Amino acid sequence: MRRFLALLCAAAFLISVAALPAQAAVAWGSRGDDVYRVQARLAQYGYYTGAPDGIFGQATYDAVTWFQRRNGLTADGVVGSATAAALGISLGGEAMPAAATESESYLLARLVHGEARGEPYTGKVAVAAVVLNRVRSAAFPNTISGVIFQAGAFDCVRDGQIWLQPDSDSIRAANDALAGWDPTAGCIYYYNPATATSSWIWSREVRLNIGAHSFAV
């Protein structure tokens, strides 16, 4: 009788484990809406050149691994939770909400540290505010991670400084911006006039200067 009950419990455990949903991920051979979302976001960021078709093949694999290598992720060609978060999407459901998660607020602090180290404190908050203003703008991705990892958007992502540990001022500046402080009053661009090489950025309307940065719309 005890053996029968033990077998029954073991069977129930195996059934309950089998019933758990698998972690959402897309990889070579996957098809469907998740693949389409991955392709569309990779195309938006400049990593994928084909038309999104919802089929995960060689072109998608190459774009995913390129994105992963450029952004400090494991370049395995599989879009799991970490890669999806960096892309600013969720898998198996609706788009990620715009509200910042704890990991995204820390990522914002990393961005501040990488982009505004040595700037006045208000300038650090202003850099974080630019990211949040982009999240709110229809012209940019609607998540913090999506804005930060948009191809070519920030120098600290290109040179790897995004992965430096943020100092306490950078963390506090990110939190102040998330709490609603925007020293830029809505700016969505900033640049250093002493080092900027893009002729396009000079065409933007500068609203204010803080430290070494000009903030523009």
Descriptive report:
This protein is mainly alpha-helical and 217 residues long. It has two domains: 19-87, Muramoyl-pentapeptide Carboxypeptidase, domain 1; 102-216, Arc Repressor Mutant, subunit A, CATH 1.10.10.2520. 47% of the residues lie in helices and 6% in strands. It contains nine helices and three strands. A three-stranded antiparallel beta sheet has the order 1-3-2, covered by helices on one side. It is elongated and about 50 Å long. Residues 4-23 and 94-99 have low confidence and may be disordered.
List keywords for this structure.
Muramoyl-pentapeptide Carboxypeptidase, domain 1, 9 helices, 217 residues, mainly alpha, 3-stranded antiparallel beta sheet, Arc Repressor Mutant, subunit A, 47% helix
Break the fold down into its secondary structure elements and pairings:
Elements: H1 2-19, H2 33-45, H3 58-70, H4 81-87, H5 102-116, H6 121-136, H7 144-148, H8 155-158, H9 168-178, E1 189-191, E2 206-210, E3 213-216
Antiparallel strand pairs: 1-3, 2-3
Helix pairs in contact: 5-6, 5-9, 6-9
- The CATH superfamily of the largest domain is identified as Cell wall hydrolase SleB, domain 1
Number of helices: 9
Largest sheet: 3 strands, antiparallel
Total separate domains: 2
Count of distinct strands: 3
Give the low-pLDDT segments: 4-23, 94-99
Rg measurement, Å: 21 Å
Distance between the termini: 76 Å
What's the arrangement of strands in the largest beta sheet? 1-3-2
Looking at the structure, what is the overall shape? elongated
Structural class by sheet pairing and helices = mainly alpha
